[in-house]
Structures are given as structure tokens and as C-alpha cells.
Amino acid sequence: MSQQAAQHATQAIIGEPEVVEDGATAQSPAWLALKSAVSAIRELQIKDGSIPDAGDHVRAAELVAEITVRILELAPLFPHDDEYLRASVADFERWAADGFGVPDFLDSLVAFHPEQHREDGIRHLVVFPMYTQNGSSDRLVEAVLIEVIWPEFVSELEAGDYSNKLFIPVRFLDFTAGYDTNAAVLFPETVATREIPVFTWGAIFADREAARFRRVVRAASEITGLDLPADARELLEDQELTEKTFVMWDLIHDRTHMRGDLPFDPFMIKQRMPYFLYSLEELRCDLTAFRESVRLVRAEDTDPVTRKHAQLVQYTVIFDRIFRFALTGSRVRNYDGLGGQLLFAWMHQKGVLHWTDTTLSIDWDEVPDVVNALGEAIHDLYWRSIDRPKVAHWLAAYELVSGTLAPHPASKWARGLDDETLAGPAKGYTDQVMDDEFPLSMFYEALQKKMATVIESTSGITGAD
């Protein structure tokens, strides 16, 4: 930390005690100044985060000085992050001193440990050069104010059968442009660093998930004529209730990636596979959350608060999957979309979801066992595939999906891959998968036309909207 920056920060704090006392940090002058400086330096960066034009370096140095001063000015609001915030200042100053090459914020990333402070309402100031998943692939500087959501019943679940020490559920207080998108996660692997450290946390924005769920499901239920159960309607009226429900869903989903009979790396790092494999992995995790929620509802010793949220998790998994996931994004290898289509078709073909007289209805008493059966089918695929070659697992996975969803008429996989492909490397299998191997059904084509504007409107949404 430069002496000038430290002196400036100290003077600012002494002269503006209201900044330190301001619980609404997002409205404080120091935060607004930091946000403005970060927004300005982003305009000078290129995709890898560097600022190659030497003509921009004087201006960039001024902005870095402003950023570091404001971080130090805000730091007293976040005493639990003091080591991280000071490391952040040092990383910014080194980036400037080294000529604004590809940024390296390893030191500050390693110093940031939100998983050590899982307390409801605790806040963090996060400033990193990073890309945002489902937002921007450019590693630009982002500044985000977040607040932890940690309900007591979730704390008890996590301390018991659903341990997940890395999981951090949060809500937005304010953010820069990379998060004015569909991005709903804050992951350390997105940060620009010189090497890959051991990751100790992962944050999910439950407020964004809840807010877009409520907007999309409200519209979809009106369009399809779906009569929602009373407790499901409660989700659409209560943002806080929905946030807590998503925290429970995400807690179990997130831990499932690391557990079970896994025939491959659950995070599929550095693997190129047919995209329907990613669909099944994400759906496996969601259906595990669904199955465990059913178990908690049916267990006699489940406390009333947990039982209520466990029932609501079942609604959120189904509705988010069949209404939002299925219709969000392009049709190019859309694995989340495919998972939503698969769940809808499975429920329809098993006779618990009906589209009759242009009205959607669901037999809720029968839903838990039917949806759990899909989860069991995926579990069985995984269990058997431990003994199979990789490509044999791929073929079995395709059989599972295509047994419920109709492939594209031009699909080479549906017709049967030729002997040359079957005898060749795995890459050849992947190359034969169509970008839209399982197109939308007629139901979804019609629904998409009516839902597209609603889904697009959820970009950048927060719980305050």
C-alpha cells in the first residue's frame, strides 16, 4: 500500500464518519466512487484484462489510485476482510507498477475467505479482475457488494447430513457491469491469477435466482393456466421466502457434484464431451436436492421450518427447470435447457403432468415418486458406467435421454454412429452431436414465443426489483 493512498484513506475516514457508520454501503459516497472508477478502468481493458495501449496508462494509474483509496476507505466496514482488502490494494498497485499486463490477483484471492464468515447479514466488498459466468467472458475488473444469506434452518442442515463447507449463499447489494447480466455465481476460478490455488469457497446469488424464478413462473403459470398449490403461490409473493428456499436447494445441489457413484470428474474440468452429459450431471444434482427434500418432508422428526422449505424446494426445482431452464439461452449445446426439457417430458409421459384443453395441470400427490424415478435412472446410469469405457457411457447416456426426448431427425447419433466413428477417438463421437440434438417440442416452441420477453427481462434482476 502506498503511503499516499493510506494517508488519503485515513483522512477520508476521519473526515467522513458517516461512511463508516453507513449500513447501506451501496449508497455511500466511497462505494459510488469506487464503482465509478472500476467502470472507467474496464473501458481501457481488453479481453484478457490487460491494458496494452501505453497511451492509456496514465489514466489507468489515476483510476487504480482512486480504486485503492476507496477500498481502504471502505475497509473499516468489513473488518473480517481486512487482510483480503489490503492484499487487493497491493495487487492493484503491483498491476499498475508492472505496466498493466495481464492482471494477477492471486495474493488477494488467497486472502479472501468468505466461507469463514457464514453469518446471516454479514457483508463483503469484492473487487477482482474476473469473468462472470453467463455474463461476460472478458476478465475485466468487477466490484461487487454482497450480503450473506444464512438462515438458521440451513445452518442446521449444513451442520448435519448436508455438510458443504465451500458453499456461500449471497444476495446483491450493488455491482458493476459484468453482473448486470444473467450471472448468478461468484466463483474464485473466474479471477485472473498466475496459478490455480486451492479453492475454498463458491458463492451463489440466491436473490437473483429467486427474483427471476418468481417473475418467470408467475408469467408461465398465467400463460399455461396452471393452478398453483397455495404454498407454491406463496413463493411468488415472498422474495425472502424464495431466497431461503433456493439456499436450501443450492446447498444440496452444490455438494452433490462431489458425491455419489461418479464415472468421471463431476465438474468435467478440461473434458470435451457431448453436451447431454453436462445436462445429466446438472439434473442429477437438482434431482438429488429434490429427493432429499421429499425425504425431509416425509420424515417424522423434521422440524416444521425445514419441512416447509423442503416442500418448497420441490416446487422450485420443477418450475425453474420446466419453465426457465428449458427456454433460456440459445439452442447451441444448451445443456441446462435440455435438462428442463427432459424433466417436463418425463413427467408428461409418466402421467403426472398434463397439457389438455390448452391448460397445464400437475398431479402433485404423485409427483415426488415420479420425479425421484428419473433421479434413480440417472443414478443407475452413473453406477453402471463406472465399469464402462467412456464412450460406452456416452452411448448409454444418449439412450437414456433419447428414450424420453425425440432427437433431431437428422441426428447421426439417433441413426447410429458409423463403424469408423465408433472405432475412433472420443472426439469423433462429440463432433457428431448436433448443436441442437434435441430440439424444442411443439409445446415449448409455442411457449417460447410467449415467454421470451419475460425471460430476457430477468437479466440483471435482483431481489430489490
Written overview of the protein:
The chain is of the alpha+beta class and 465 residues long. The chain has two domains: 3-200, no CATH class; 208-456, no CATH class. The chain contains 19 helices and seven strands. The chain has a five-stranded mixed beta sheet. A hairpin with a 2-residue loop joins strand 6 and strand 7 (359-362). The radius of gyration is 24 Å and the shape is globular.
Write the layout of secondary structure elements.
Elements: H1 3-15, H2 17-21, H3 29-42, H4 57-74, H5 82-97, H6 106-111, E1 123-132, E2 136-148, H7 152-159, E3 167-175, E4 185-186, E5 202-205, H8 206-224, H9 230-237, H10 239-256, H11 275-298, H12 304-324, H13 335-349, E6 353-356, E7 359-362, H14 367-385, H15 390-402, H16 412-415, H17 419-423, H18 426-431, H19 442-456
Parallel strand pairs: 3-5
Antiparallel strand pairs: 1-2, 2-3, 4-5, 6-7
Helix pairs in contact: 1-4, 3-4, 4-5, 8-10, 8-12, 8-19, 10-11, 10-12, 11-12, 11-13, 11-14, 12-13, 14-15
C-alpha geometry: globular
Instruction: Please report the distance between the alpha carbons of the first and last residues.
Output: 38 Å
Order of helices and strands: HHHHHHEEHEEEHHHHHHEEHHHHHH
Query: Helical region count?
Result: 19
Alpha-carbon Rg, integer: 24 Å
Mean pLDDT: 93
- For the secondary structure, the number of strands is 7
Could you give a short account of the major beta sheet? 5 strands, mixed
The number of domains is 2
Strand order of the largest sheet: 1-2-3-5-4
